[in-house]
Fold this sequence. Notes:
Number of domains: 1
Mean pLDDT: 87
Order of helices and strands: EEHEEHEE
Number of helices: 2
Helix content: 10-25%
Number of strands: 6
Shape: globular
Distance between the termini: 62 Å
Largest sheet: 4 strands, mixed
Low-confidence stretches: none
Amino acid sequence: MRDQGHPPVISYSPTLVTVYLLRDGRLEPVRIPVASDSADNIITTLFRAGKLPPKPGLSSALDEFSHYDTESTRYSDTAERNDPVDNQGYRLNVIITGTGKVSREGLAQITCTIRQNKQASIWSVEVTRLFPGTPESLGDHTCFEYRDLAAKGVRLPP
């Protein structure tokens, strides 16, 4: 038997995404490796990072909730936007489950995490709480509306 050299090695370089967790009620970005930068993976990573924060002192306003699904739709509210017709974006609907009311900080975490990683294609983020109880839309958001929640020195995406 002849030696044919070293066996093949598969090299894996994870994609890093930025998720927003909370420190003293303020949004703080944290870089976390993910298998891919799909919207579904990004949101799943946000919920997982909140339950097991990667740095001391970080927390999440989403601990009582779980990510259920994400759906994107063509942005159709052109009356409010001044964008060229051929530059169409999407609205991402993040569907969650859990009891209680999602706080403004929780909405900011979801919205700013998506906007940070998908700025070019996602124009707004809609959050829907599916169950238990009656499904409830928590509105259509951009990260700009949460700029007052940014930690000192943190610049949030649009």
